[in-house]
Write a structure and sequence with these properties.
This protein has six helices and ten strands; from the N terminus they run αβαβαββαβααβββββ. With about 240 residues, the chain is α/β, with parallel strands linked by helices. The protein has a six-stranded mixed β-sheet, covered by helices on one side. Strands 1-2 form a two-stranded parallel ribbon. A two-stranded antiparallel ribbon has the order 9-10. α4 (about 105-115) packs parallel to α6 (about 145-150).
């Protein structure tokens, strides 16, 4: 799409490194465009030391098996406890498909988290709630209703956090909050019926978590010229 994704990622990482060192860095998927192992090795080396801990999730463009072999299972845990908070990491990727789905084993992680009572954030690549972009909403988690049945009414489940949609959003539906983070490369235009790129710059999302179970979150964008080819109709 006319964007140098290595450059845009580097600018994002330099801005992250310019602030306080994060306790946890979550890479929410689509690390490689086609599951190339070299991409996983390169990114792991670049991210070393940037945060107290690091977790990766596979996206629809990734090869989860190759990823795990390249970076180690310890960077792809199913859950994590940190400072009184519980983090659950779900694999929504389906080999050979663009859209997402949760296997029974992933839903079991949610069931256990829902029974814990601890303040919890659930991270995954695909979105579960529609974001209002028709072409992207066709790709959301296909069995999201099974997920919602487990977390509905569970006030300690603070939010679902996703990538995939390449745009910023924060919404609530029937007591379930879903937060999406922008991409470190191209951005998709919100509210679009078909594939469309946005002109807004790459970014990332920060979370500040508190001991009383509340949190704040903010999207930060990088400065500079990151022009894209708006005539593109897909990739």
């Amino acid at each position: 799409m006319g964007l140098d994704t290595d450059r845009s990622l580097e600018v994002v990482l330099q801005q992250v490194a310019g602030g306080a060192k994060p306790d946890l860095l979550i890479v929410s998927g689509d690390i490689s465009s086609d599951g190339q192992v070299d991409a996983y090795h390169r990114l792991k080396a670049r991210l070393q030391g940037m945060a107290g801990a690091m977790v990766w999730l596979p996206g629809n463009h990734d090869d989860a098996v190759q990823m795990r072999a390249a970076i180690g299972a310890e960077i792809m845990p199913g859950s994590l406890l940190l400072e009184g908070w519980q983090f659950v990491f779900l694999n929504t990727a389906v080999p050979g498909q663009v859209g997402g789905r949760l296997a029974a084993s992933e839903l079991e992680k949610v069931r256990l988290a829902a029974s814990s009572g601890m303040p919890t954030l659930i991270f995954m690549h695909h979105h579960a709630l529609p974001v209002g972009s028709d072409w992207l909403d066709e790709q959301r988690v296909s069995n999201a209703d099974e997920l919602f049945s487990l977390i509905g009414g569970q006030t300690h489940i603070k939010a679902l956090v996703c990538g995939h949609v390449h745009q910023e959003s924060d919404q609530n539906a029937e007591g379930i909050r879903q937060i999406s983070t922008p991409s470190s490369c191209i951005q998709f235009a919100p509210g679009s019926e078909d594939f469309a790129l946005d002109s807004i710059n790459p970014g990332y999302r920060c979370f500040a978590l508190h001991g009383n179970g509340t949190f704040e979150t903010q999207v930060k964008r990088v400065a500079g010229n990151f022009a894209v080819d708006h005539s593109a109709r897909g990739y």
